[in-house]
Amino acid sequence: MIPQDDKNQGPRKPRGRPRDWHDKTAQNTIKSLDRAMEVFEFLSDTQGKALTTLASDLNQSPSTVYRILVTLETRGLVEFDQVDQVWHIGARAFVIGSRFLRRTSLVERARPHLRALMEKTGETANLGIRQHG
Description:
The chain has helices at residues 31-45, 51-58, 62-74, 91-102, 106-121; strands at residues 78-81, 86-89. By secondary structure, the protein is mainly alpha-helical.
């Protein structure tokens, strides 16, 4: 079925990419999401940080970082250790990351080579994908 406009003047053109698809300037980014991703990426590099340390290291207010962490926690992307009072990356981050590997045939192509390497060395073999240098 072809979508109709409100005035019933005929079919509307389906929406695709925005006109400025390749424009990656600040006007086309969501600042709060960018800030949240900065916290998430920093935490993934520096596991086990307290809120005040994270806020200080990122030069952001503790209340902002706290709200970001709580939001990410509701999605399972980060976890709070109540005993040590520190934040860690959550299991859901692994699930999402592993979906990237499922979309590529690289894993299936590498599997026999990794298995042979494991058998030859008696050690665990892992596949890593270098990205952005």
